[in-house]
Amino acid sequence: MISLQGLTKRFGRRAAVCAVSLEVPRGVIYGLLGHNGAGKSTTIGMLLGQIIPDEGRALIDGQDVAVARQRALAKVGAIYETPAFYDYLSGRSNLRVLSEYTGPVEPRRIDEVVRLVGLQDRIDDRVATYSHGMRQRLAFAQALLPQPEMLLLDEPGEGLDPEGIHELRELILGLNRESGLTILLSSHLLSEIQQLCSHVAILREGHLLFAGDWRDVKVREDRVRIQATPRRDAEQGLVQAGLVADFDDDGCGCLAPSASAATVARWLVEHGFQIHAIAPADRTLESFYLETTRGDAGPATGRS
Amino acid sequence: MWAIQFRNELLKLVARKRTYIGFGVFLFVEAVVLGLFALSGTTEAFGLLLTKNGLELADGYTGLTLAGGIVYITVAMLGALYMTLVSGDMVAKEVEDGTMRMILSRPVSRLRVIAIKAAVCVVHTFALVFFIGLTSLLAGALYRGGLGNLVVFAPHEGVFAILPPGEGLRRYLLSLFFIGLTCQTISALGLMFSCFRMRPATATILALSVFSVDFILRTIPYFNAFRGYFLTHHIDCWIHIFEPFVPWGRMAESLLLLAGLTISFWVIGAAGFCSRDLKA
Fold first, then answer.
1. In angstroms, what separates the C-alpha of A166 from chain B's closest C-alpha?
2. Cα(B145)–Cα(B160) distance, rounded to whole angstroms?
3. How far apart are the C-alpha atoms of A9 and B247, rounded to whole Å?
4. A211 to chain B, minimum CA–CA distance in Å?
5. A186 — phi, psi (to 5°)?
């Protein structure tokens, strides 16, 4: 459904996106991850035709955005960067004005979408009186109004409270499940992406490091979770003894090549530590993301 | 869809408070100019001018003449400012506020967005000019208790005319149309700058700078031989509508030149807008 082919964009001397190639299949929720300045928004901007690529092509449903932008975006709803509205108009007028750039819109459809995002009580108020979270909901409503088959969402959860994030997550999952919407979203909230996305693309300094189903990448067998008390002393001791390379905040570390779970357990017992658990580490998206972006492991070769 | 999008663009313009600042300021300036016309010194000077031309003060110091004077002075003083204030805002303000990103997340071409905005600028310019013209007419008529003859005296353009009430009103209304038409070039200049990467105020200031420099150079006697090259010389062609025999050929020449410039400004603005990146 989305195909990026060697997409490159430079701002002055700085390359914001470098030869990114990516395929987003129909019907998936695809996460776009990366630090600030990694190129996520620029990539979405190029997909929307708002940023003109220096090289490469962005295709939606086979239509090149640079050549046939209107056809390519015909079935796309989007939130690109921080949503902005006409503060002096009501939420309803904003929805009408923006959606009528696509085509005529039925008042009934506006009511339907407004209910879906939970703005029905304030939709006729001026947007100037809206909170950040309400603006975010309004942005989501405008993206859904043209009944899109695909959503491009740039940091959709930014500024939402925990309840708002939960509702947004449920909404995205529901849209994907019930309407089969293809959704490409960028976010800093790794836990959210983990709960939403089967596939992710990880960008660093404009380069694509990984793209695909991150759960398919084999978990490193030497990565273990060690729970022993006193925790800090045990972790320091194991690192100094050369049995474990390093520990993260969750108490997970990589065994040294010569070490095994048994040698770690023996060392802990011999040095008077109390062992609660030694088990293979569960992979979280956060650990996968950090491994990939720090380049200290080898999963960065996956492609979907 | 053009009609709906045009209507929405107008809605955006009329819903903003700052759109009305111009209209409000013009009303205030009209009142000030009318007040100045009412001062005895002004009346005496005007009476002297009329006497020299074989007329009584009552024949020329009429509601219609006052309306013409108010329009001429207020448009010359503030017309360009408020036209470029709106047209300079048209694109740059939406880009600055981020609403342009929202618009262009839709399957609408940039060219279409600019075309609709240019159309709204055209409507706004005409609306502003007719607002000034009709309110001045009302003010003049109320102050002098009727319309009467129309006396026009524009020495720089070599126009001196005394027109009877009916013909005077017809020419006055026609002049409003031609002022609106010629001012489209100023408005288009503001829109052109607005399409490039700059703040709305910068677009307005640039357009005003071009207009002001052109106007000042044109008024310097040394450059009289080159008057035909100045933009404001052609913009002021509407004044010739008051001549007893309207020089249509000369007016058409100026209007065609202005039309060419206006279209060029639109095209350059659209080309700049279509080739730029939109990113916060």
1. 25
2. 24
3. 56
4. 25
5. -105, 145
